[in-house]
Amino acid sequence: MNVRTFLIQLALVSAASAGLVFWMNSWPRFASHAVVGWASLGVFVLISLGMYYAGRKAAVSENKHDFTNVALGVTVGKLFFAIGFILGYNYLAQPDDRQFIIPFFSVYLIYTIFETYVMMKLGQTDQNK
């Protein structure tokens, strides 16, 4: 997958995710936690960019384990980020309810599916390139 294709697909996924966050924030139960949806969207765009460039480099590496290490590192890193984000927001904002988790995990799920797709495409990269 070349850079242009990735960036176009990332822009489309991000636009769809932004639409979802905007729509969810129009509901009163999610509106008070609007910052969660927008912050998670921004962070996951950055994670996706980092994942693509690290995965692209690892896909053509002579060490066949580099790609697996990147894929596992991104997965574990996102998991720890998600836990830290939820716990941090819960501690700092002390929300009255747990509804803030729904917009966060909606964005998390969308980007996890997208990143899995991208990593599968990068995994098919010819190492002779």
UniProtKB/TrEMBL annotation:
<keyword id="KW-1133">Transmembrane helix</keyword>
<keyword id="KW-0472">Membrane</keyword>
<feature type="transmembrane region" description="Helical">
    <location>
        <begin position="67"/>
        <end position="88"/>
    </location>
</feature>
<feature type="transmembrane region" description="Helical">
    <location>
        <begin position="34"/>
        <end position="55"/>
    </location>
</feature>
<feature type="transmembrane region" description="Helical">
    <location>
        <begin position="100"/>
        <end position="120"/>
    </location>
</feature>
<keyword id="KW-0812">Transmembrane</keyword>
<protein>
    <submittedName>
        <fullName>Uncharacterized protein</fullName>
    </submittedName>
</protein>
